[in-house]
Queue: 2 jobs
Job 1
Amino acid sequence: MQPVIVGDVVVQPLYDGTAVLTTDMFFGSDWTEHRHLLADDGTLVVPVGGFLVRLGEHLVLLDAGVGDVHDTMFDGGRMLESLHAVGVREADIDTIVVSHLHSDHMGWLERDGAITFPNATIHVGAADWRFFVDEQANGKRRAERLRVVQEHVSLIHHDGTAILPGLVTRATPGHTPGHTSTVITSGAERLIVLGDALHCPAQLTETEWEFLYDEDRALAARTRQALVREGEQTGTMLLPCHFPGMTFARLLPMQGVRRWSIG
Ligand SMILES: [Zn+2]
């Protein structure tokens, strides 16, 4: 997986495995123009994982994969190997930002009841913590796993929270109540790491397609549309978690027609 370069900052995708999505998870979708994104059996096989950001002396992890999970949707387990392959150990990570608390973004935070990244502060949207932990919206088990890391968690209450110099959060709710993107700025370039605000490149143009697991589908669509409009600004790249090759998109505004390139 190729690193994404933002000014002086290197963002390294950390591959954990894959998820299999089906086209009927995207409501109102027509795949005629997007067949190249589908596997031979008509499914959409997407990568899962996270991103390592080297920012000055800091080592930052954005999202924490699915973990050693093998079921009908997910086939994970390789994220720590991916981390070690670039010379980084779990204890080296000092900052984590989790876009949201679905299983494929918090999977490695704990293992067998112990914290995986012992020296990291874990930043999470306050509304997601309330939803998934306090209200146990995805069940007791998820809440219990997250309570293991509770003492390391710093809740994000405000849009535009500065986590580190050059790294600021952005409230992007809809997929989940506290879904949070991270904006990395270096020189004249900006990368918006946007978790699951978009699930596949087709949604860069088909922003109205709603996704099965968007908690508030109308809000998710508005958030997606705002992010894609922002992506049309000069020097701005969008990096969703599940794009092919875990790479970024650039929007190319041309004659009123929205086009994009990836990687
Ligand atoms: Zn996801």
Job 2
Amino acid sequence: MRRERFFRMTRAEALALLESAPVIHLASTTPEGAPILRTLHGVVVDDALCFHAAPVGEKVESLGRAVVISCEELVASIPSYFVDPERACPATTLYRSAQLHGTLERVDAPPHKARVLGALMAKYQPEGGHLPLDVAHPSYDALYEKQVAALLIVQVRLADLDGKAKLMQNRSPEERCRVLEQLWARGLDGDPRAIELIRQANPDTPTPPFLRFEPLFENSNGRSKVPVTLHCALDPGDVAAAVELLAPEYWNIDTFGRERIAGAILGSPVFVGARVDGRLVACARAISDGHKYAWVYDVVVAPEWRGGGLGEAVMRLCLDHPRVRGAARVLLQTRDAQPLYHKLGFIDAADAPPRPYPSTSMLRIQR
Ligand SMILES: CC(C)(COP(=O)(O)OP(=O)(O)OC[C@H]1O[C@@H](n2cnc3c(N)ncnc32)[C@H](O)[C@@H]1OP(=O)(O)O)[C@@H](O)C(=O)NCCC(=O)NCCS
């Protein structure tokens, strides 16, 4: 085994990383034994990592030869002073990486080549805007046949794929919890997501104070026994569930469609919430310049979970988020949840100290 067991990713995780990597690196040798290292755009098709190349050059010379393909994602840099105020030695980097070992093979069948090129287009030009690279399409022969024939398509089968996720698995649960607090306090853009990844990889890590939640639910309805987890960085996989919670609410229902709500969440640097058994039950999002203004939007708790303190907990987390906590003013609008926001230090804007100059709030409705 090439990788330490401790840090190994599952094959599915390694594959997901390889599939989503914007670029991959390929290392091989020429027939003369000279080393080659190339950066490529790759795509997974039919259980192989595929890419295209010019029909002459180093990649052609490497056909049939052993290659290693790798990709990586930097999760967070952990500075030495998180652990030791004097020594530089504890500085480390948290990352996820995948490696594929195999042989470079040529793909010759035109339908297969077209499918690889179509998959590359779908990955790097997902908005479309071209006719399909499909041999069955009526325009294929005229538009693509010659060009596809002239391109070299190569693949490496996914048989020997593994991945490594270095996410503090070698530290004690208490050390990890301390680092989670330090990452939250540091608050660089990737830190909330790093906190989520470290917790996912190490379920025995104690919950840091900023993510603790004591449910207020009565025992009689059984809900207090269900563990609620707070999340400082929900991920794109939560967006569909968030849209389901948000679409029927009064400020969205006649104004913003599901696609626009989803786009707004994906465009927000702050997307926090709570899950029960992996299911999203509450969320809030914010946009912020990090210094002057932050705007909180789309605060919601699933109807069956209301009245138990979750709305307040998610809002506290949102306000404590590094992007929001650094802003001098936090704004939001509400029809009837003023008591919730009063508890959190908001005042009605009409009661705010008057500005030294008269002004009007303005709005441009575009769509
Ligand atoms: C508003 C909402 C997010 C509150 O979440 P929640 O989990 O039910 O609220 P909590 O249990 O954390 O309550 C915290 C405080 O908020 C206030 N509050 C909660 N629900 C409220 C409501 N519907 N109207 C007015 N105040 C409310 C109370 O003051 C409560 O404090 P208390 O328990 O000391 O009385 C939730 O009811 C919801 O999703 N409503 C529909 C969507 C919505 O209106 N979102 C807010 C848009 S600005």
